Amino acid sequence: MLKRILRSMAFVAVAAAATLTASAALAAKVAVITPYLAQPGTQFYVEAFQGVAGDKGWDVNVIDTQGDVAAVISRIEDMVTQNVDAIVINVDPAQVQAGLQVAADAGIPVFGMDAGADPLLVTNVTSNGYQMAAETSTYVADRIGGTGNVVMFIFDAFPPVQVRGVIARAVFGNYPDITILDQVTPDVSDGGIADSRAKMEAILAANPEPGSIAAVWAAWDQPALGALQAIADAGRSDEGIVITGIDANPQARDEIAKGGNFEASVAQDFHGIGAATADAVARVLDGETIKQRVIYVPTKLITVANAGE
Amino acid sequence: MPLLELSNVSKAYAGTPALRQVDLKIEAGEVHALMGENGAGKSTLIKILAGVVAPDSATIRMDDRLVSIDDAAKAHRLGFRFIHQELNVVPSLSVAENIVMGQRYPRRAGIFVDWKKLNSVAADALRRLGVTHIDPRVKMASLSTGDRMLAKISAALLSADGAPARLYVMDEPTAALTREESEQLFRVLNEIRAAGNSVLYVSHRIDEVMALCDRATVLRDGQSIDSGMLSEITHDDLVAMMTGRKVTETYPAQVAPPSDETAYEGHGLSVRKGEILGLAGLSGSGQTELLRRIFGRPASAWRRGIAYVPKERRSEGLVLTRPIFENITLPHLKTHSLGGAFLAPGRERGFATSMGDDVKLRATSTRQLVQQLSGGNQQKVVFAKALSGEPDLLLLDEPTRGVDVGAKYDIYSVIREMTAKGMAVILASSDLPELLGLCDRIAVMRNGSISIIVEAGLSEDALLNLCYGRATHSEAA
Amino acid sequence: MTILTLLRRFGTLIGFVVIVCYFWAQLPDTFMTARNWLNITQQLSMLIVVAAGMTIVMVMNDFDLSVGSMASLSGIVAAMLFSFGYPIWLAVGIALLVGLLGGLFNGVLVGLIGILPFVATLATLTMFSGAAFVVSGGKTISGRVIPEAFGNFARQGIEIGPLTVPNLTIVALAVVALVWVLLEQTTFGRRLYAIGGNLEAAHLSGVPVRRFKLIAFSLTGLSAALAGLLYASRVASANPTQGSGLMLNAIAAVFLGMTMSGQGEPRVLATVLGVLILGVLDNGLTQMAVDSYVRQILVGAIILIAVSFSSISKAKRS
């Protein structure tokens, strides 16, 4: 982060001195545009992407629109004006159709990096969200022996997270003795932990009987961490409530390694997504045609056994 | 030996001279008046004394030694104390706290405020002015305007850095005071004079200046005139010095007698067409409230032909940041528009120009912003606005407060002209000569209601007695 | 006129010209092109509409913090109605009505009940935002439920010679023209400025202050709803948080514009220039590949410089 700012400061200084000439005329220009750079996962794959790009000598411009999706369209338009060689987006392509169309008209290839499939994208590189949700929800169902009340934390506003909820509901629905006690959409404006904790505290208060909550399934790690805190705070850590998350961020890994209620999460290979996206860009720049609409990068279930890795 | 002597003071703003080689000499133990119409340069001169404005050139001597007034702190060290028209007091604090404010409060054990000591310090300061009726422990908010001013003056007696007060500069001190409060203030001025200190007394009220001050310096068009001893000249001489012309009459004569037809009746009074009904009373006796009740809901009042000139022209009468013509057409904007919806600025300006001429407004153009005008001209804009719909009834609340002599006469003339055309006027004023000089009848208010309505033609003393509720011969009227 | 007063009055305008010239020099091939400028106006259309509406209440010395969440709400309302099969005109009409009523509610809180605009609209900000989440169930509504014609609107334009002027640009220009007529050419606008200059004097001069507050806030809400629909059309979807960035930018644009008027009053054309400054910075710095976070620092600095110029020289005069 600091490095990025320093680099940009240096850039402004150079530009102000008007010494900026066509220094890298031959390097391929690639723009990475995302509204979600502040999120940890996004930072990982952007860094991995930059790593590969650096090896290839590309001139990469990373643009963060800070949650503003329409601004992604605007920045795509600006990049088309600049006639870059390729554009990488990290946003639901359905919402930036206007920009994708402009790029398509100009013949500039656009790649999805954990974005979503779309005819206007060359390809989308992502983890298999269905598979991740299936891994944690079946883990939960197995651990509670196919019976009990489950609390779900979901977030349907973001499509990649929304599909996880769909799968988990299907899995739990397949067990006649599993009841979905509540489906909570936490307020994520502060990161998601605090509000998830508050919501979980309310649910615990409403279900005081030991054993009345068998598991908490969260569509990503932050609500799982919030639920964990709420359960510990209520003195109900001993009830054996099983908690799972998805993404396996460092904090989640720490908790899983302790062997407490937070038992499992799934690690996306963010570096793998970033590197695979860069590979896809390189292949297209070299003239290859990519047939796969989606390129899946493998994921990994994290439990106490491998959390420390 | 003069206490303070300013000579050859010049100051120009953006090339426009405000003061041209002005001289001002104040003797020790003197109450010295500073007079002049609005825009004559009084406020610039006061700002130079306060160290807020730097003169382009000036020679300043104090006790016959050359001094310079670099900033407000220096002015304070020299012993200058300023009591402004708008009193900046903190109403929610006690009188004592207001008096001692800006200095270290007396303490006990270094931490706790020694309230007893604080109150006695304040009481001492008040006593030095001969004021004993104010309890320093009560909230400032509970004091009348006059008492607040006395508290403010006694605060000026104390000083944070030990520099003794030498010269009090008072800007229109009696503008908001009742007669009794004014008299208390005059006693205080004598105390100051007796102690060998001086007062620079800024006022429009010529009678007051004649009665109270030793000498006057009159500013006109940025130049100064030394009046000499006031005891040796007449009221009219002083007016002539201010206006540069001989004003023979203070109040223009009635053009036509009022008709018998009633223009308005209600709220315990009635006023005939062409009549001026005065509202007298001690300040705060309910004059403003009565006018507001007669006015009612503003939007419908204007439509019914009732116009209102409020007491506070800057905060209630005018939109200072807008041009003159927009202020004048505001109450009846729709009649000057296209179809009631779209603006016709050309038409508005034409109308505003003719209204401005009617009230003898002096401005470069009706597009000039109201805030750039002098107080008297601002008040003329308020009048032009009020008269813009040819009202049947005009309500006036202190219409000449803070207005200079020339502009006052213009305003009185306009009132006379309009009443000659049949307009009825209700005029609330604390200036008794004004009421006596203009009104056909005067309603005296006490404690929120009208106590008596008398025909004009009584003496000022008689009217004052009525205001205080003392029995007089006119009880029978 | 001294240099200082010149700077005070026109400093922001001069700054805008300097910025444009700088980008022109740095990006000789791509910046000063008709296509890029049409892009910029299209990118700014939503902000222009919100800022123009914001100008209306700021003329009265009030302001409205709820415009961003109202924009989100109107987009969501329209998208939900699409998903129930409502025709486009009806869904759009209802969404605009929601904006008008939401604005009226703000007007009631501020004008009739007398709550400070900051507090009242901070509360409605969260209410409208919450309503957007409730109506949508927290989901992004996109894909097939959004009629193609609705999404296409933002992608199409009117051909004028070799250029295509985007529909969004045309809508924004139309809103600016309407607000300009309203504020500068009607008795309503004149009296609105009188309220802003001195509320008490305007009241005593017969201006129906309360009714005007209701109307002004309603119009601001309506314009916020329109901006939300433009946004929804541009992204062919609706998300319960998508308008949230508009509010601060709109207030910043009005403030930038206020530095250009003699009395520090909001003027809608000056507001548009304020929006253009923000948008040109975004466009030019993105093209120059300057980091987005540094861009934010620059935008803040420019607002401070513009406002400082007008305040410093004011302080010096008195």
Strand order of the largest sheet of chain C: 1-4
Span between N and C termini of chain C?
16 Å
Q: Unreliable segments of chain B (pLDDT under 50, ≥5 consecutive)? A: 472-477
Structural class of chain B, by secondary structure, is alpha/beta
Portion of residues in beta strands of chain C equals: under 5%
What's the average pLDDT of chain B? 85
Average pLDDT metric of chain C:
90
Classify the beta-strand content of chain B into a percent band: 15-25%
The main pleated sheet of chain C reads as:
2 strands, antiparallel
Q: CATH homologous superfamily of the largest domain in chain B - what is it? A: P-loop containing nucleotide triphosphate hydrolases
Return the domain count of chain C: 1
The separation of the N and C termini of chain B measures: 56 Å
Second-tier CATH architecture of the largest domain in chain B: 3-Layer(aba) Sandwich
Q: In the CATH scheme, what's the topology name of the largest domain in chain B?
A: Rossmann fold
Which parts of chain C are unreliable, with pLDDT below 50 for 5 consecutive residues or more?
none
CATH architecture of chain C: Orthogonal Bundle
How many helices of chain C in DSSP terms?
A: 13
> What is the count of distinct domains of chain B?
2
CA-based gyration radius of chain B: 24 Å
What features would you highlight for this structure?
heterotrimer, B: 477 residues, alpha/beta, Rossmann fold, 6-stranded mixed beta sheet, 17 helices, 20 strands, 23% strand, globular, disordered C terminus, C: 318 residues, mainly alpha, ABC transporter involved in vitamin B12 uptake, BtuC, two-stranded antiparallel ribbon, two-stranded antiparallel sheet
